[in-house]
Prior knowledge:
The chain is an alpha+beta fold. It is built from 5 helices and 7 strands, in the order αβββααααββββ.
Amino acid sequence: xxQLILFIACLISLNANGQAYVNGIEYKQxxxxxSFQKRxxxxxxxxxxxxxxxxxxxxxxxxxxxxxxxxxxxxxxxxNAEKASYAQTVKELTPKYGASVAKRIAKGQVWxxxxxxxxxxSLGRADDVKNTYTDKGKIERWYxxxxxxxxxxxxxxxxxxxxxxxx
Length: 167
């Protein structure tokens, strides 16, 4: 019980004028809980920022924070560029293919029934293309390595339509 009272006394204290403080933040009479929590959060954030700056000033690797910030910034820029590229691709392809197909192409997806033109938009140019002639006609096979596309394998086309996907 004494420990609980001591703990509460540490959290809530009164100064000589009778003003209440919670964790060092003055609680104004009549103040709403939300208002007090906002002020406390701002004070806690300021304390955190001060401690973070003090750490980096005394830390032996003074360039560490700059390197971390650069990596984070580069990652965010890359993510934003990917999102912008995706949005631009969808915008350009929607009038021709419709929104749902344009989104699938922009994500690099392939499915049976696509045209060869749609597959090239989705995956890019194939590493290699080979033609096979059968009694049923010409089969064109596109080969991809996963280094440049989302698949590693081949796509088979007949009359410019995708008929098989091999991974």
